[in-house]
Design brief:
single chain, 301 residues, mainly alpha
Length: 301
């Protein structure tokens, strides 16, 4: 009897020891998985933060690359949405991640507002006003708004160069936001739509770098690479203001012809469906399109 009790005790101890060892192994494996998940999380966050750093330190205040800047910010925001989901069980971490995501969304919103400043620049031109069919009262209101905006900008930013760059941009964004609100309240929906069409036309080939245009036309990676190659060959210097090989500055007419030719090459890369969508987005050709082109892509100040 004592022998059986001893054997039973030994077997029980062995089972308990084996179970403990399995439990320890499972805990160790779980800890390794948790550590690996945390390592991947931190790596992903560093990658997202690097996108933000490049966007804000390298690309800010550079109008030709604002499309790229927006794409970097949108990618970073997508990362942070995933991070927030992953940290559901940690209220402190989640709150920090939400704060960063909201800050990035604010930057993206400000960029959109600054793009709207270009539409107001167009609206200040009599040729655009005629195309939109502005009434006398609308024209007077726009001209008064333009003068007021210019004066407010001078009053608020007279020491712009003494301000830090973020502070200067912030003030300009707020001025532009208020200006955009009044402009949209003044124009009809049809006029606003036509103004957007003209704005797309006058931006030249760089418009195909815009995230919204890429999405609406469903441009493939191959098409985007081909478009970038066309731009690079056509504009080895900023917007080809200088005639290649001559060192001479291009006239407005010559630059306009160059841009027109580049746009034609880009459109030739589109499928019939994409081309039809592009024509719908841009509407009837603005007759002054190739003489009204601004000195650089887009209108970000």
């Amino acid at each position: 009897m004592m022998f059986l009790t001893l054997v039973g005790s030994l077997i029980a101890n062995w089972l308990i020891t084996s179970a403990n060892e399995r439990t320890k192994a499972a805990l160790a494996e779980s800890q390794l998985r948790a550590e690996e998940a945390e390592r991947r999380f931190q790596q992903a966050r560093k990658a997202a933060d690097l996108l933000v750093e490049v966007s804000e330190q390298e690309l800010a205040d550079k109008p030709p690359v604002q499309g790229l800047r927006k794409r970097l910010l949108e990618t970073a925001i997508a990362y942070y949405k995933d991070f927030i989901s992953q940290r559901r069980s940690d209220a402190s971490d989640q709150a920090e991640l939400i704060a960063v995501r909201d800050r990035l969304k604010k930057i993206l919103d400000d960029l959109t507002i600054l793009e709207g400043a270009g539409q107001f620049m167009l609206l200040s031109d009599r040729r655009v006003q005629a195309d939109l069919g502005l009434s006398d009262s609308q024209r007077q209101k726009i001209e008064a708004l333009s003068e007021e905006f210019a004066q407010r900008r001078l009053d608020s930013l007279h020491d712009f160069h003494q301000l830090s760059s973020p502070a200067g941009r912030s003030q300009f964004v707020e001025l532009t936001r208020a200006n955009d609100h009044v402009m949209r309240a003044t124009l009809t929906e049809t006029q606003l739509q036509r103004l957007e069409q003209i704005a797309l036309q006058v931006q030249g080939p760089m418009v195909f770098d815009r995230t919204d245009i890429i999405a609406q036309l469903h441009l493939t990676d191959t098409q985007r690479q081909a478009i970038r190659q066309i731009e690079t060959e056509a504009f080895p210097l900023p917007w080809n203001l200088m005639s290649p090989g001559s060192g001479q500055r291009l006239s407005d007419g010559s630059r306009a012809m160059n841009v027109q030719g580049v746009i034609g090459k880009v459109l030739a890369r589109l499928t019939p469906e994409q081309l039809a969508k592009w024509k719908k987005l841009t509407g009837p050709p603005f007759k002054e399109i190739f003489t009204f082109l601004p000195p650089g892509p887009g209108f970000a100040p």
